[in-house]
Automatic annotation (TrEMBL):
Name of the gene: yiaO_1
Localization of this protein: Periplasm
Name of a matching Pfam family: DctP
Protein's UniProt name: 2,3-diketo-L-gulonate-binding periplasmic protein YiaO
RNA-binding keyword on record: no
Cross-referenced PANTHER family: PTHR33376, SIALIC ACID-BINDING PERIPLASMIC PROTEIN SIAP (PTHR33376:SF4)
Family per similarity comment: Belongs to the bacterial solute-binding protein 7 family.
Cellular component, GO annotation: outer membrane-bounded periplasmic space
NCBIfam families linked: dctP, TRAP_S1
GO biological process annotation, one example: transmembrane transport
CDD domains referenced in this protein's UniProt entry, alphabetically: PBP2_TRAP_SBP_like_5
Residues making up the signal peptide according to the UniProt record: 1-20
Length: 322
């Protein structure tokens, strides 16, 4: 009897300590030094601290676990715990999210952050929750700009025939088609090699990503088109979160909020310092761009991808946010 009790106590202690050491994997597409890496580390540090070490964490950076679309699927089947991703591929899972990917919709960072931190952002996080995912917090990628290896882009005519990698996002593809480029959707982990080998001439991403990925090694020109705001979101697996207590879910929520805040602070820093870094590394940075003709063509070709299905209400609500 004595032996049995001792064995049971040891087994219970082992079970508790196994629970106490749950290690969370946070996947993202960029390096640990990037704005996503900073956000992933803030998530891990906050979760570890709040849980008193019951949860620890590690990053799976640089697309180690696949492109953003693969990682989102990983959350749905429970092979991955937490992902920081742009909304690029998310519309394939939660079509209402395409509203956020419309070009020239957000005026500036303040407009985007106020929108996402308010009712609209919460409604869209709730929509994510209806699609076998948990949307914890709105993080950030940044305003996207066009880079390419061929020539300076100042007007839509300069995009003519340019083979441009876009995200796997039908709103973005329609926008670039309208602006005159030849959009080629591709997962991010394939992009650097595709640029290097001339499979595509260019791509579009925020300064944060262009610097983190050292695209100056394969791209000469960057045009500050700011054609679309690229939100990011901290997502979790429902398979993981459904098994947690309210207190534990609270730790995950706080970790996601800390992650989003840290990423946005890093975006702010790189928006200040990043353009100089691009120049230092030999890129020609084109700043004298009249955005109006880009905006007109992009809106004409892409807004209907969203509004044909969902109407114009969400677009008007976002435009009205002060
Ligand atoms: O271009 C993309 O696919 C995204 O902007 C990236 C770089 C994966 C960050 O979310």
């Amino acid at each position: 009897m004595k032996h049995f009790l001792t064995g049971a106590i040891v087994a219970a202690a082992l079970a508790t300590s196994a629970q106490a050491q749950q290690n969370i994997v946070v996947g993202h597409a960029l390096s640990t030094a990037s704005h996503y890496g900073v956000g992933a580390q803030a998530f891990i540090d906050t979760l570890t601290e709040l849980s008193g070490g019951a949860f620890t964490g590690e990053q799976a950076p640089a697309g180690q676990l696949g492109g953003e679309r693969d990682m989102i699927e990983g959350l749905q089947i429970g092979s991955l715990d937490v992902v920081i991703t742009s909304t690029g591929p998310l519309g394939n899972f939660v079509p209402e999210i395409y509203a956020l990917d419309l070009p020239f919709l957000f005026r500036d960072y303040a407009h985007a952050r106020t929108t996402l931190d308010g009712d609209i952002g919460q409604e869209l996080l709730d929509k994510i929750g209806e699609n076998n995912l948990v949307g914890l917090a709105w993080s950030e990628n940044g305003f996207r700009h066009v880079t390419n290896s061929q020539h300076a882009v100042r007007t839509p005519a300069d995009l003519d025939g340019l083979k441009l990698r876009t995200m796997e996002n039908k709103v973005h593809m329609a926008a670039f088609q309208g602006m005159g480029a030849s959009p080629t959707p591709m997962a991010f982990p394939e992009l650097f090699t595709a640029l290097q080998q001339g499979v595509v001439d260019g791509q579009e991403n925020p300064v944060t990503v262009i610097t983190a990925s050292k695209f100056w090694e394969v791209q000469k020109y960057v045009s500050l088109t700011g054609h679309v705001y690229s939100p990011a979101v901290v997502l979790a697996s429902p398979i993981l979160l459904d098994g947690l207590s309210d207190e534990q879910r609270g730790w995950f929520q706080a970790a996601a909020d800390a992650s989003a805040a840290a990423t946005r602070a890093e975006v702010n820093r790189l928006e200040e310092a990043g353009v100089a870094l691009l120049r230092e590394n030999g890129m020609e940075v084109i700043t004298d761009i009249d955005k109006a003709p880009f905006a007109e063509l992009a809106a004409a070709s892409s807004y209907s991808v969203y509004t044909d299905q969902y109407g114009t209400e969400m677009v008007e609500r976002i435009q009205a946010v002060k």
